[in-house]
Amino acid sequence: xxxxxxxxxxxxxxxxxxxxxxxxxxxxxxxxxxxxxxxxxxxxxxxxxxxxxxxxxxxxxxxxxxxxxxxxxxxxxxxxxxxxxxxxxxxxxxxxxxxxxxxxxxxxxxxxxxxxxxxxxxxxxxxxxxxxxxxxxxxxxxxxxxxxxxxxxxxxxxxxxxxxxxxxxxxxxxxxx
Length: 177
What we know:
The protein is α/β, with parallel strands linked by helices. It has helices spanning 2-11, 22-33, and strands at 60-62, 71-74, 78-80, 89-92, 96-102, 105-108, 119-125, 129-132, 135-137, 153-158, 161-166.
């Protein structure tokens, strides 16, 4: 409930739902209540969007900002609850989501030669360096100006370059021209 409130109050994003593995749900409920939980797992349970879920690797949740000198390397997706400051880097074989400002280095799709499906999302996207697969980019110079309003941005590969656009909450194939 706290995460939902942060998304809605601070960033004006509506949460449609959360998805997690049954084992994680069992563990979290058990830890919260102090009572063992056993969920029945129906065989063959699947959802129409199950193909969109990345199975390789696991997700890493970083519950603080990354300060200068911090290096996070992970085989899978990375979610940072805070900022990635200059001098810090986040490298993931999957996607990177930063619930804060990206001012350091981020590299999504790190082990793939063709990582056109990988993306980086941040509430403020002003990286020293941005990498997706083999593509490299830097933030445009804005003479130190910050955005008046916080609008999450997504960086993806389009054509043969990295393109940054406002994140609308939808993941589309080839979302940018």
